[in-house]
């Protein structure tokens, strides 16, 4: 464990600082924010500008919220997920976005599995701090599908101090949702509905590197590395349904039907986020990787790996 921590810290501190103008948000920096940073970087004006953008992402994350620690609680998808998104960013700091998730379900074929709407605010240009607040609602077609999000509502806020080379940050997240599991044998079924409520607190250290005019006068590169400690607690409430009445009564009388499950507030995982972006004119390509090491004892694999590659085109 100590070797893993030393390796992660070394990765962050060993990168040479060429240029820095704006920080990363503590727990995550999604494609909306990275694109905004580079548009500001390449603009002739110091002030932020308003714009529309179309994004198309490809990756293995079940859902796309800013809280990467939340993503890491659920296994990566076993297939590629395509996520087209339309967003509008206003120079005041407000932004709105809507998107869908497309994938190839082995049972139901290729199609839309869920959609989402987000609204957020980012503090405009500030030399001392960054502040972000975001709400995302996810519309799920089938709560029993393993390819859809168990989270339906997500509230996220993040703060980062910008004056130091290694920038400390803190973020908080509250999420809720519902998912299910069902077993069918001929005309009989047995299902469990699970309601989720989760609170997470994330502390981080990060650094952002920027290079202008790499290949021509209209391009730029951003690279962000972030090390996170993810903490949180959750509550699961279970509801059992079956058309086999005798089975339900039998299990209920013997206490075999759980009503709820709580986890206390604790350190849950260590995360390493590596985000890059290349912008030329109005086009951007943004590969993102996240590695999460689960801390509590578990028989499952403790290291989870997530990736997304997003292509964006902005209309200023």
What is the mean pLDDT? 77
User: What pattern of helices and strands is seen along the backbone?
Assistant: HHEHEEEEEEEEHEEE
In DSSP terms (H or I, runs of 4 or more residues), the helix count works out at 4
Number of strands: 12
Helical/strand content category: mainly beta
How large is the share of residues in beta strands? over 45%
Side by side, the strands of the main sheet go 1-2-3-4-5-6-7-8-9-10-11-12
Q: How far is the first residue's CA from the last residue's CA? A: 47 Å
Approximately how much helix is present in the residues?
10-25%
Q: Which word captures the global form?
A: globular
Uncertain runs are 1-29, 42-46, 250-257
Largest sheet: 12 strands, antiparallel, barrel
C-alpha Rg (nearest Å): 21 Å
Please tell me about this protein's structure.
The protein is built from 4 helices and 12 strands; from the N terminus they run H-H-E-H-E-E-E-E-E-E-E-E-H-E-E-E. It has a 12-stranded antiparallel β-barrel with strand order 1-2-3-4-5-6-7-8-9-10-11-12. Helix content is 12%, strand content 57%. By secondary structure, it is mainly beta. The N and C termini lie far apart (47 Å). Strand 4 and strand 5 form a beta hairpin. The radius of gyration is 21 Å and the shape is globular.
